[in-house]
Amino acid sequence: MTGSARGDRSIEVDGLTRRFGTFTAVDAISFDVAQGEVFGFLGANGAGKTTAIRMLIGLLAPTAGSARVAGYDVATQAEMVKRNIGYMSQRFSLYEDLTVRENITLYGGIYGLSDEAIEKRTAELVDRLDLRDDVDTRVKSIPLGWKQKLAFSVAVLHDPKVVFLDEPTGGVDPITRRQFWELIYTTAAAGTTVFVTTHYMDEAEYCDRVSIMVDGRIVALGTPSELKAQYEARTIDDVFVRLARAGNAA
Amino acid sequence: MTARGDGAAIEALGLSRRFDDVQALDDVSFEVRSGELFGFIGPDGAGKTTLFRILATLQRPDAGSARVLGLDVVKDFWAIRTRIGYMPGRFSLYADLSVEENLRFFASVFGTTLEQGAELIAPIYEQIAPFKDRRAGALSGGMKQKLALCCALVHTPELLLLDEPTTGVDAVSRREFWDLLEKLRAGGLTIVASTPYMDEASRCERVALIQRGKILEIADPRRIGERFDRPLIAVRAAERIRLLEALRAHPGAGSVFPFGDVVHYTDDRPGGDAQAIAASVRDDLVAHGIEDADVEVVPPGIEDVFMALMQRRGMEAA
């Protein structure tokens, strides 16, 4: 594995920069994420999060600096990056008119799994998510919380080294949310790095470490407890609001 | 505008509404006092939007009744519409009209002018005035939301209904929005807002917790912890999965949930003393080989109460 040759870091970002004309959307950000870590990538609307992620997943070339994801350089090995990551967006990537089984089969095929592997993964997944009775139900008819768990499971179907999640738990009830985080923790404990983007600060409290981006730069990075202690704040939301307001005032 | 406290702005009795095989609202009753800032808190699909549409007279209930500003939502719908401001959850502005054109349009629909509504919207409008010639579609999320609020207020309503006004906007804009609502409330306006974000409950005077079309509880958010009938223990340890497993195996374990960077534990054995439970949890974790655990008794918050009520009602997670 190329990734393991460089120690246990799944994401290494060094001075990563992206300019659009005269506007610097991402301004020389640097950070590392360890294998199996749950990392929260926070920022206000327009702070540069989306641009940074598009570079990390190999969709946008950096203007300066470098990043390695899953052991591959995002600028020169973008195809290998894409093959070794999973992605779950806010509006799930599931096909609503296909059944649970059909969605798993479809994504398994896209990821290049063999028929045999797909069958095995389907059985495991359906068992773990308790979807046995609904395996032939169309996705549009299953509850939101199950869709979220299924979308996540599909995003890690090919055992990627890193999975990117965009606001994974928005809108679900508090019990379902916690079940979802347990699924994330289990996946991370098995060695997949989980990279969570969100502007819902409550989600940040569940991450091992979080970074906060303001105006293209990372202005804070640490465990939720460290950041709360450092800024004498009760919640990450308080930390964030203080940093973002300071940024806007500047 | 009615003076604060002189009666009910909304009285809902047994409201129910069904769509095909989904019971969106199931026998919902509540009262909002005049001048109150009242919140409906619940996840997607809880029935919040259906409830707001009924209150805004855009949908009829299958059963039950509701009076808004003393008027019946089915019989008196025209009269209600001119006296309330309603901000739907989805972006409700005309994206190709400018900020100012949107405001003038909404004013004219209600037979008034932007100038007549100016006093009420002034504190909000001054924040978006620098962009008054910009197309609404080109505004940031936080700015759109402030414009939508202005449009809902331009005819100086007595009651404001806001359906998920802060969904999808960032933490700074969310706070600014609630600050604005507090100012409006201080001016005497009655405000009913819904949100899926539990942490916004503290900005309301009273909240209704809603799930699967039912109201689980109505309470003052500052006192909602009193609805939690057992000690709550927060445990922190480096290895989260192992910690969760060990706590679930603890004799007497009730609920065990990850909660940010800690795990919340309750005990099912009746009459337990908080410190005694904490001590037994600590000992048991050491016996499981988890020696770095930090165990403390903490006050329950709104999410703890919400989850306990869901479990008591036998509502499984969706």
Report the largest inter-chain contact.
A-B, 37 and 36 residues
What's the helix count of chain B?
9
Biggest sheet details of chain B: 6 strands, mixed
CATH class of the largest domain in chain B: Alpha Beta
**Whole-number average pLDDT of chain A?**
90
**Into which percentage range does the β-strand content of chain A fall?**
25-35%
Q: Percentage of helical residues of chain B?
A: 25-40%
By CATH, the topology of the largest domain in chain B is: Rossmann fold
- Strand % of chain B is 25-35%
Give the SSE order of chain B as H and E letters. EEEHEEHEHHHEHEEEEHEEHEH
The total domain count of chain B is 2
Shape label of chain A? globular
The stretches of 5 or more residues of chain B where confidence is low (pLDDT under 50) are: none
- The share of residues in helices of chain A is 25-40%
Radius of gyration of chain B equals 23 Å
How many domains would you count in the coordinates of chain A?
A: 2
Number of helices of chain A: 10
Query: By helix and strand content of chain A, what is the structural category?
Result: alpha/beta
Task: Give a quick precis of the structure.
With 250 residues, chain A is an alpha/beta fold.
Question: What does this 3D model show about the protein?
Answer:
The complex is a heterodimer of chains A (250) and B (318). Chain A has 250 residues and is an alpha/beta fold. Helices cover 38% and strands 26% of the residues of chain A. In chain A, helix 4 (100-110) packs across helix 5. Chain B is an alpha/beta fold. Chain B has 2 domains: 8-225, 3-Layer(aba) Sandwich (Rossmann fold); 229-299, ACT domain (Alpha-Beta Plaits), CATH 3.30.70. In chain B, the strands form 3 sheets. In chain B, strands 6-7-8-3-9-10 form a 6-stranded mixed beta sheet, with helices on both faces. The two termini of chain B are 42 Å apart. The mean pLDDT of chain B is 92.
